[in-house]
Automatic annotation (TrEMBL):
Topological category with respect to the lipid bilayer: Multi-pass membrane protein
Keyword Cell membrane found: yes
Membrane-spanning parts: 12-35, 55-73, 94-118, 138-156, 163-183, 219-238
Main location: membrane
Organism lineage: Bacteria, Pseudomonadati, Bacteroidota, Chitinophagia, Chitinophagales
Domain of life from the UniProt record: Bacteria
Compartments in which it is found: Cell membrane
UniProt source species: Limnovirga soli
GO cellular-component term (any): plasma membrane
Keywords: Cell membrane, Membrane, Transmembrane, Transmembrane helix
Protein name (record): ABC transporter permease subunit
PANTHER family per record: MEMBRANE COMPONENT OF ABC TRANSPORTER YHHJ-RELATED, MULTIDRUG ABC TRANSPORTER PERMEASE YBHS-RELATED
GO molecular function, one term: ABC-type transporter activity
Signal peptide: none
Length: 240
C-alpha cells in the first residue's frame, strides 16, 4: 500500500501541474484573506480565522479533484494499471495507497496556512485566537479534504479521461458540501425533515467541528462517507 502511496506522491510532483496547483491554492487564499478588502481578515477588527475556514472548502472543491483526477484514470489510459494487476497487491491496497498519497498532498497544501494563525496571533492586541476552535477547524478541514479525496478517487475509477474525472469529482464534492443544505431550505420540507436532510451533507458536520466541539457523531459521519466511496472504488478496481 505504501508503495502505491509513494508512487502517487511522486507522480503528482513529476510535472509542474502539481506544484502549480498548490501554489495557486496558497496564493488564492493569501489574496482573499489579506489583500481583497471584502474578505480580508485584517478588516475584521478582531483575531479570527473564520473567514479562512469559510472560504477554504470552496477552494478545496477545485484543488482536490485536480489532485485525484489522475489517480486511476491515468492508470487506465496509460496502461500502467495492467502492471499494477501483476503486482502482489489487493484492490483495497491499491485504493488505500492512492487515497493516502493524495491526502498527504492535501496535508502539504494546508500546512503553510498555519502561518495565518501565527500571523493573526502576533498581530492581535488583546485576546488572540480561540485555540480550541482553530484546532477543531483545521481538523474539520482535513476531514473535509479526506471526503473530497475519496469522492475524487471514486470518480477517477469510472473513466480513463482525466477531464471527466476532474469534473465528476468536483461535482460530487460540491453536491456533498452544499447540495443537502440547499435542498433542506426548500419550502416543501418541514423544519424536522429539513434538519435531517441537512445532516446528510458535509457542511452541517464541518460547521460543528469548526466550533471546536468534537462530536463522535460527526466523526462517524466523515469516516462513513470516506469508507463508502473507497468501498465503491475497490469494487470498480476489482472489476477491472
Amino acid at each position: 500500500m505504501w508503495m502505491i502511496c509513494i508512487k502517487e506522491w511522486r507522480q503528482f510532483f513529476s510535472s509542474a501541474t502539481g506544484y502549480m496547483a498548490i501554489i495557486v491554492f496558497l496564493l488564492l487564499n493569501g489574496l482573499l484573506l489579506f489583500v481583497f478588502p471584502d474578505t480580508s481578515l485584517l478588516d475584521f477588527g478582531y483575531a479570527s480565522l473564520n473567514g479562512f475556514f469559510s472560504l477554504a472548502p470552496y477552494i478545496l472543491l477545485f484543488l482536490v479533484p485536480t489532485i485525484t483526477m489522475r489517480s486511476l484514470a491515468d492508470e487506465y489510459k496509460s496502461g500502467t494499471f495492467e502492471i499494477l494487476k501483476t503486482m502482489p497487491l489487493t484492490p483495497s491496497q491499491i485504493v488505500w495507497g492512492k487515497f493516502f498519497g493524495a491526502l498527504l498532498i492535501i496535508l502539504l497544501a494546508l500546512l503553510p496556512t498555519i502561518i495565518y494563525a501565527f500571523s493573526l496571533q502576533s498581530l492581535s492586541a488583546t485576546g488572540g485566537l480561540d485555540i480550541g476552535s482553530t484546532i477543531g477547524s483545521y481538523m474539520g478541514l482535513l476531514l473535509l479534504g479526506a471526503v473530497f479525496t475519496a469522492a475524487g478517487i471514486c470518480a477517477s475509477s469510472y473513466t480513463n479521461n482525466t477531464v471527466i474525472a476532474f469534473i465528476s469529482g468536483a461535482f460530487i464534492a460540491f453536491i456533498l458540501f452544499t447540495g443537502f443544505q440547499a435542498i433542506s431550505k426548500l419550502p416543501v420540507f418541514g423544519s424536522g425533515t429539513a434538519y435531517y436532510i441537512e445532516m446528510l451533507g458535509i457542511q452541517f458536520h464541518y460547521s460543528n467541528i469548526s466550533k471546536g466541539v468534537i462530536d463522535i457523531r460527526d466523526m462517524v459521519y466523515f469516516i462513513g462517507v470516506i469508507g463508502l466511496f473507497l468501498i465503491i472504488t475497490q469494487r470498480n478496481v476489482a472489476n477491472r
